[in-house]
Write the structure tokens for this entry.
Amino acid sequence: MQFELFKSYQRYLKLERNYTHNTIEAYTHDLDWLRRYMRDHGKKPEDMRLADLENFAATLHEYGIGPTSQGRILSGVRAFFRFLRMEGYIEDDPTELLEWPHLGEHLPEVLSTEEVDRLESSIDLSDPQGQRNKAIIEVLFSCGLRVSELVNLKLSNLYLREKFIRVEGKGRKERLVPISDTAIHELELWFYDRRQLNIKRGEEDYVFLNRRGAHLTRTMILIMIKRQALEAGIEKTISPHTLRHSFATALLRGGADLRAIQAMLGHEKISTTEIYTHLSTEDLRKEILNHHPRNIKWNEQHKDEQG
């Protein structure tokens, strides 16, 4: 019975929610923690009560799972029990009063435009993959794409004359994103190199390819960006997602409307986008502390005292 319930939930995620294979795999993996707990305690999903779920949440902590991952797992568990209630398997949702782990305020790392320039300048353009890598970084920064959106970007979804691209985001939702002249220029230079490749059958429409003519993976791009950060002397811990954060932060600093940034990023909820207002507030705090005359005088006095 339990097996059929979980299979039914997977079908719901695929057919009703229109989630991608990777998203369904992530949900399933997180639910494995719940399945393990129920197996160890002789419980079925319909038997679970709030006290059981609170105990389950405590076991996640005991396994050494951090607050962020706990929150993600519990979010998946809540979605599962909502499905059970919607389908009539249970009458009441036991997750409604379940408390979430305290995550604290986490502000993502961002790069300044100057640091992105350093990242790109560190690329060896004599390397066969050099121009491709420069185009990747520029598109990530100029368009704010998720790395999964970048690896699946198709030539047929580029409208460079009109200066926008069509992106397939989470839940296969499509959105139109403007693309800068700089990014278009780097892409066009990459297309010259791309035409020299022996492209595999079925891979012809992918924008970014490896040297064997197949589309890239997210891991390949992560490794490349971390390597370039090292080459550029950037000590921040960065990933492809850092360029997405940097894109959004740069827009906000430039005066862009939060709703416009939400649409560009493909966020379903405005609350997800609002983290960038915290980033700007933190920047403002640093600017005041560093440049206000009272703070400058204080710092100089205490520097002299320490010297």
